[in-house]
UniProtKB/TrEMBL annotation:
Residues 1-31 are annotated as: Disordered. The keyword Membrane applies. This is Transposase IS116/IS110/IS902 C-terminal domain-containing protein. The lineage of its organism: Bacteria, Bacillati, Chloroflexota, Ktedonobacteria, Ktedonobacterales. Keywords: Membrane, Transmembrane, Transmembrane helix. Residues 3-56 form the Transposase IS116/IS110/IS902 C-terminal domain.
Length: 99
């Protein structure tokens, strides 16, 4: 079902590979308001000391700021999906919950 949500909001390029070849890495058209919100949230996380902030900085070195923002926006969407389906709060990756 997670792939269904991400497919409904195609803000990230597909990960399909066949015979060692990948189709175009362009993003498809989607709801412009949701895409804008996800990309703005991704740019905001770049200034934080979190897992998503580090992911943005790591990707922006190799791929550029815009592609990194789309990738982090996709990660934010997946985190949102898991929070809604499991009814649990999000936990920062790499930290233990036993404070």
């Amino acid at each position: 079902m997670q792939n269904h949500l991400v497919g409904w909001l195609p803000d990230c390029p597909g990960q399909k590979e066949s015979a060692g070849k990948r189709p175009s890495g362009r993003t498809r058209h989607a709801n412009p308001y949701v895409k804008t919100a996800l990309v703005q949230a991704a740019h905001t996380t770049a200034r934080t000391q979190t897992y998503l902030g580090e992911q943005y900085r790591r990707l922006s070195k190799r791929r550029g700021a815009k592609r990194a923002a789309v990738a982090v926006g996709h990660s934010i969407l997946v985190i949102f999906y898991h929070m809604m389906t499991t009814d649990q709060p999000s936990h920062e990756r790499g930290t233990s919950s036993s404070g």
